[in-house]
Amino acid sequence: MPLRILYVEDNAMVREITLELLEQEQRHIVASETAEDALREFKQQPFDIVITDVSLPAMSGLDLARNILSIRPTMPIIVATGYGLDLSQGKWTPNVRAIAKPFDGPQIEALIAELCAAVEP
């Protein structure tokens, strides 16, 4: 069964570059440019992992993560940011990780593998 990834990024160029990094034969990727669209997608179909930019128009990637975790508390989520981000404030679960932008293929792949191995569906 392919890994189902929900990817959220409002910058079209960054979205396309990252999709190229993420694409593999055994993956189904749905890309959204807003958190609102991503939340609708999340409610309509199953995903194995969510990767979201933090800085999005209207609803932020952090708010998206909170909404998703309220629906599925064990959902693996990667939040990507070009700014400093502290996830140690107790508001997050162990299945949420941050990655600094720009990231490369091996960095995101290692994080995806770590989260998917650690979190039960």
Explain what this protein looks like in three dimensions.
- The protein has one domain (3-118): Rossmann fold (3-Layer(aba) Sandwich), CATH 3.40.50.
- Helices cover 38% and strands 22% of the residues.
- It has helices at 12-22, 35-44, 61-71, 105-118; strands spanning 3-8, 27-32, 49-53, 77-81, 96-100.
- β1, α1 and β2 (27-32) form a beta-alpha-beta unit.
Cα(first) to Cα(last) distance is 13 Å
Q: What's the total count of β strands?
A: 5
CATH architecture: 3-Layer(aba) Sandwich
Helix fraction by DSSP (H/I, runs of at least 4): 25-40%
CATH superfamily: Response regulator
Q: Please indicate the percent range of residues in DSSP E strands (runs of 2 or more).
A: 15-25%
Q: Poorly predicted ranges (pLDDT <50, ≥5 residues)?
A: none
Count structural domains: 1
Q: What key phrases describe this protein's structure?
A:
globular, 121 residues, single chain, alpha/beta
Summarize the helices and strands and which ones pair or pack.
Elements: E1 3-8, H1 12-22, E2 27-32, H2 35-44, E3 49-53, H3 61-71, E4 77-81, E5 96-100, H4 105-118
Parallel strand pairs: 1-2, 1-3, 3-4, 4-5
Short synopsis of the structure:
The protein has one domain: Rossmann fold.
